[in-house]
Design goal:
Length: 106
Amino acid sequence: MPLQNLEIVPRLLPDVRAGRKRHTIRWREREIVPGPMLYVNAQDAFDTVMVCVTHVEKMPLCDVAARLGKSAEWPDAELLEGMREHYPSIELDSDVTVIHHLPPVA
């Protein structure tokens, strides 16, 4: 089985590398399962970070901030605006996948 991977915007890679970003929210993308996963810079395929996915959850977008303990940082309007940068037609009631992972191994 080939290594699972997801593209990620370059500005988020430093937080993944530092272990500050430990999840990603995806909508209508390939299925990801627990185990090794490679993040690939969307603008430079040679820039990658290997992480280990611990679990994957499906939920409406409107439930994500509370689930991740980020309700204060991510009010609904701000979360929706941020997600629409990547998925222009997403709505608060859209079912998304939250992929949780460990910090990368040095």
